[in-house]
Amino acid sequence: MTTLTPLFPRQPVPSLDVPLVGGGRWSMAARSPRTFTMVVFYRGLHCPICSRYLGDLNGRTGALAERGVEVVAISSDEADRAERAKASWKLDALDVGYGLGLDDARRWGLYLSTGRGPTSAGIEEPARFSEPGLFLVRPDGTLYFGTVQTMPFARPAFAEIVQALDFVIAKDYPARGEVLD
Fold first, then answer.
1. Whether the Cβ atoms of residue 21 and residue 96 lie closer than 8 Å to each other
2. SS3 of 75-87
3. Residues 43/152, Cβ–Cβ less than 8 Å
4. pLDDT (tens digit, 9 = 90+) per residue, 91-145?
5. Which of 90, 89, 96 minimizes the C-alpha distance to 74?
6. How far apart (Å, rounded) are the C-alpha atoms in residues 96 and 48?
7. Dihedral sign computed on CA atoms, order 56, 60, 64, 70
8. CB-CB contact of 13 with 28 (8 Å)
């Protein structure tokens, strides 16, 4: 059994490189945001809660860009499922990455689940997939904020994150939770 190691604020995040729906690749190493990179890990096409959550995020990409935040949503889905999610969930303003390896998911501290058949959306869960997580990463590649979940519900609200970013940016508020000893 693999033990999850949490990521710590002010420490470098693990490398991350995934293909994007529509072509190209998304790489953490290639990011150069003005303030933050927001990485949103979602469960996959089978998750109706992810559909609503990413739909909300899609509508806020402009507000996040105004604050200097680059955004990507990533799952362990294969290409065809990620393409279906982007199209059917109408994620026209959002970069959607796919093919997240489960070892990479664990390096980011994400929880893994096993498939249990079709969901309420009528779509089969993959045999194994990662549960949700949301991370804000500074331009220097260090963690500013992170949250991971074992369930699809009760995720951080993007409206609150946008509002918090105004305070964080204006006050140059430091990353918290950085104490390692």
1. yes
2. CCCCHHHHHHHHH
3. yes
4. 999 999 999 999 999 999 999 999 999 888 889 999 999 999 999 999 999 999 9
5. 96
6. 16
7. positive
8. yes
Q: In the chain, at which residue ranges do the beta strands (DSSP E only) sit?
A: 17-19, 25-27, 36-41, 69-74, 95-97, 112-114, 128-130, 133-137, 143-148
**pLDDT band per the 50, 70, 90 thresholds, residue 76:** very high
CA gap 84, 100 in Å, rounded: 16
DSSP letters for 35-78: SEEEEEE---TT-HHHHHHHHHHHHHHHHHHHTTEEEEEE-S--
In a domain, 160, yes or no: yes
CATH number at residue 60: 3.40.30.10
Considering the entire predicted model, what is its pTM?
0.96
Structural domains counted in the chain: 1
Q: What is the dihedral of CA 65, 70, 73, 78, to 10 degrees?
A: 130
CB-CB contact of 167 with 180 (8 Å): no
Considering the domain boundaries, does residue 30 fall inside one? yes
Any domain includes 177: no
